[in-house]
Design brief:
This protein has 181 residues and is mainly alpha-helical. It is built from ten helices and no strands. It is 72% helix and 0% strand.
Length: 181
């Protein structure tokens, strides 16, 4: 049976999340127009909410679950940054966000830095688990393998002269059209 305090945290978390969800686009706070807050709020909550909520509700904060949460957060942040890279021309005319301030090339380098962090932390946690029993098991080795698989994509992003709508093709492997149908 859960204590009252343990049952209270999911409600607090839900309240904070609803606050961020609302003010991500709503004035006067409008987080999506605040440098850093746009990427941070997207990374922390927008795509990670279902997994994060389950961790809070189940009170399951092991090294593996927290690491997976960090992976989801990093991937969500990267997706937001690349979406801002794609929308750069429109955004710089109407709003101020992280990519508008730092520029497209630096934003791509930031995504690369996040991927490098993800790769190094994955390898470190796997090795420390194997050597010392603390970290994450080899089961998580899929994460560094996925990072390595994105090397050609990152190479194409670095070499691109113009991003625009090409970012979706470079990043996701296809454009707005669905070639799979």
């Amino acid at each position: 049976m859960q204590s009252r305090v343990t049952r209270f945290w999911p409600l607090v978390f839900t309240g904070i999340t609803m606050f961020v969800y609302y003010f991500y686009t709503a004035p006067p706070l409008r987080f999506k127009n605040k440098v850093g807050l746009d990427v941070l709020s997207h990374g922390l909550l927008i795509n990670t909410f279902p997994y994060f909520f389950c961790l809070v509700a189940l009170n399951d904060f092991t090294v593996g679950t927290i690491f997976l949460l960090a992976v989801f957060m990093m991937r969500s942040s990267m997706a937001q940054i690349l979406q801002e890279v794609r929308d750069y021309e429109v955004d710089r005319q109407v709003e101020k966000n992280t990519v508008v301030v730092i520029g497209q090339k630096k934003a791509v380098w930031l995504v690369f830095g996040i991927y490098l962090t993800l790769f190094i932390s994955s390898i470190t946690l796997i090795v420390t688990y194997e050597l010392y029993g603390w970290g994450v098991s080899l089961y998580y080795s899929i994460i560094p393998l996925l990072c390595v698989s994105y090397i050609p994509v990152m190479y194409k992003l670095f070499r691109a002269v113009e991003y625009g709508d090409n970012i979706e093709r470079l990043w996701m492997g296809q454009g707005r059209e669905n070639f799979w149908q």
